[in-house]
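Recall that a protein's primary structure is simply its ordered list of amino acids. Everything else, from secondary elements to tertiary packing, is in principle encoded there. The following example makes that idea concrete.
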Amino acid sequence: MSETQADLRETHIVGADTDEQMVGKQACPALGFYRIQLTGISKALPPFRFVRVRPSMSQILVCLSGCGSVLIDGQWTPCTRGMAYVTPPDCLHAYHAESAWEICWITYNEDPPGQPMVAVKRPTLLEIDPYPLAASIEGLYREYIGAAEQAVMQQWTQLIHIHAQRIVGPVHMERRLQQLWERVNADIAAPWTNERLAAKIGISSEQLRRLCQHYLGRSPMKHVTLLRMRRAITLLASEYYTIEEISERVGYENPFAFSTAFKRLMGVSPSQYRRQLHQ
């Protein structure tokens, strides 16, 4: 560890001159579904500075304009427009503004520990197109301070998740798994089982279990449930479908079983979630 890195201490300084626009999962419950704690855009000025020695969260920080400094392999490194500073949990990271520095960012909840939402082992600097993610975060914030319709906020949240995963998703994930989940999404209501899933990509159910545990941190059928609930959230945003119809469309013959599975994952029943969306 370099002397510079060794001297770093836990620091959270925003500063009076920094303007921040943020939305958290309390204001937008859909964020929690994607394990997002907080997202926002910061127009940072000195003394804006953060050091997290052993964070429980992971983070994506994207530079939109200006220049800041981020810690990479113990060295302060410029972070300019079009760069993303991606940091996993339990790994020291730090960043600060030396002048005007506009960034957008997402922090992910990594508790309980599992497969991290960012597919890097240490703080990493990537070159990306920053604007799709930034536009989605800004869209969510504008809806939050405006009409604040949960159905609309849920759609913005889904876009944020999609663009974030394009930046930091598991790029080395087995192509077989990607193909499998594409097939499942295309026929989400099918009576999926471990054996049927494994047969789709020509491996044993035990091999599939190991792959899913390694790349996703969950069992195959738990991931199927997650995909079904994501589809259900989209359908619940429309008042066109009844709860019974939605349960059938996502693979549940019994609406009570669907409601139980939904509440286990989301903390509220489908009907309660729909009411929250349209409040």
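The longest helix spans residues 150-168. The first strand starts at residue 11 and ends at 13.
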